[in-house]
Amino acid sequence: MAQPLMPHATASWLVDNTSLSFEQIAEFCGLHILEVQAIADDTAATKLTGRDPVRAHEVTQDEIDKGQADPEYRLKMTKGPEQVRRTKGPRYTPVSKRQDKPDGIAWIIRNHPEITDGAIGNLIGTTRTTIAAIRDRSHWNIGNITPKDPVTLGLTTQRELDAAVSKAAKATGGEAQPTDTRLEGDREALIAQLQAERTNAVRDPDAGPQGDAASQARALFEDPFRR
Q1: Rounded to 5 degrees, what are φ and ψ at 117?
Q2: CA-to-CA distance for 134 and 141, rounded, in angstroms?
Q3: How many CB atoms neighbour CB 169 within 10 A?
Q4: Pairwise CA distance, residues 7 & 4, whole Å
Q5: pTM of the predicted model, to two decimals?
Q6: How far apart are CA 61 and CA 56, in angstroms?
Q7: In this predicted model, what pLDDT tens digit does every residue of 29-55 receive, in sequence order?
Q8: Is 175 exposed, middle or buried (0-12, 13-18, 19+ CB in 10 A)?
Q9: Which residues in the chain come in under a pLDDT of 70?
Q10: First to last CA, the chain
Q11: HSE-up of residue 8 (Cα within 13 Å, Cβ side)
Q12: How far apart are CA 158 and CA 149, in angstroms?
């Protein structure tokens, strides 16, 4: 059921300016009856300024009159104009979160480099120019940009981000992130060396560093005065 834009302020106005019952006001505003009681008794946590729902075109005076005449009557909100939905164009981002866009873009570039600039633009609601500037570190505010998860910042949803990552992974042949192979050669050499040392130790227990240490310990035990 539709509710007033500011239910508590609307309830405060209805309490002060009508003879509607608390139950009628609570149901119309989507509040608990005890909340309406607290507003009427001035014991609410916050002092509210009443909001006239008639002037806000949320209910008509005729509806209020019907409710005042019949305590069992339930007020009906005035049907407002249909909300216009955007089907094309960039994603709308609230003004309070627009400053967080560079942080979200930097996070995606760092953690999901396989995602294209076009996909980032659709996720964050930004332009390719901004993405390119952050990518090549020529952005005017690059010194203050800190990579942050765009989902945590409220710039996109986890489902949309996962879908973009999955799509990018399929486009790149199933590899979501590039593998860092700079240390691969050193790692393989180290593994080979350890395997060789282990093999030698099994073949000749008295040989190598471990064998020498065991021989010295045995000699000292047999002749404690030997140094």
Answers
A1: -60, -35
A2: 9
A3: 16
A4: 5
A5: 0.39
A6: 12
A7: 988 998 888 888 876 555 667 888 888
A8: exposed
A9: 1, 43-48, 79-97, 174-192, 194-195, 198-199, 201-227
A10: 94
A11: 11
A12: 10
Hey, what are 3's tokens? 């509710």
Residue 139 near residue 145 (C-beta atoms within 8 A): yes
Cβ neighbours of residue 22 closer than 8 Å, sequence gap 6 or more:
15, 33, 36, 37, 40
Output the pLDDT for position 184.
Answer: 46
Place of tokens 């000699």: 219
* Tokens coding 64: 């209020």
**How high is the pLDDT of residue 155?**
87
- Helix H, strand E, coil C: the string for the chain is CCCCCCHHHHHHHHHHHCCCCHHHHHHHHCCCHHHHHHHHCCCCCCCCCCCCCCCCCCCCHHHHHHHHHCCCCCCCCCCCCCCCCCCCCCCCCCHHHHCCHHHHHHHHHHHCCCCCHHHHHHHHCCCHHHHHHHHCCCCCCHHHCCCCCHHHHCCCCHHHHHHHHHHHHHHCCCCCCCCCCCCHHHHHHHHHHHHHHHHHHHHCCCCHHHHHHHHHHHHHHHCCCCC
Residue with tokens 């760092």: 110
